[in-house]
Write a structure and sequence with these properties.
CATH architecture: 3-Layer(aba) Sandwich
Number of domains: 1
Largest sheet: 5 strands, mixed
Radius of gyration: 19 Å
Distance between the termini: 40 Å
CATH class: Alpha Beta
CATH superfamily: Periplasmic binding protein-like II
Strand content: 15-25%
CATH topology: D-Maltodextrin-Binding Protein, domain 2
Strand order of the largest sheet: 5-4-6-1-7
Order of helices and strands: HEHEEEHHEHEHE
Number of helices: 6
Length: 147
């Protein structure tokens, strides 16, 4: 009996101390000095396929956030509407046919925030909670919200 009590106590502590974000949201972000105010879903999708998208005579520069597997899955489903395999094939095909560059990819959150700040007209996506904690970036659009 004491073992069962001990095991249930340990399990309850593990589940109670697990980090939670609450209602998850993925947002589109830009550097704080970037002039971009809004972007359509179609323009966003085109940009992440390497197709040139201009706003106010400025070319948007997409930065892919690969720092979190769940965030990557949401990006693939909600932004480009493809599986990872299909998206990678499409990027490869566009690079071969038209010489379109792949979006620059970041696996470290701090490196991504730095690039958003330093590279004019850059756009990316991240969890709202991460965006709100990050200095030098600005949220411009909600891309996905947990139901």
């Amino acid at each position: 009996m004491p073992r069962l009590l001990w095991a249930s106590l340990v399990l309850s502590l593990v589940f109670c101390s697990a980090p939670t974000r609450g209602a998850e949201q993925v947002v589109l972000v830009v550097g704080e000095d970037t002039q971009i105010e809004d972007i359509s879903s179609l323009e966003l999708r085109k940009a992440f396929f390497g197709i040139t998208v201009r706003q106010n005579n400025r070319i948007l520069r997409p930065l892919r956030n690969s720092s979190d597997a769940q965030l990557n899955e949401i990006f693939l489903q909600s932004v480009v509407a493809m599986s990872e395999r299909s998206y990678e094939r499409r990027l490869f095909s566009l690079a071969l046919k038209y010489g379109r560059p792949r979006p620059e990819e970041f696996t470290d959150h701090d490196d991504l925030v730095r690039a958003l700040h330093e590279q004019p007209n850059s756009i990316s996506y991240m969890w709202r909670s991460d965006a709100e904690r990050s200095a030098r970036i600005r949220i411009i659009k909600l891309l996905w919200q947990e139901n």
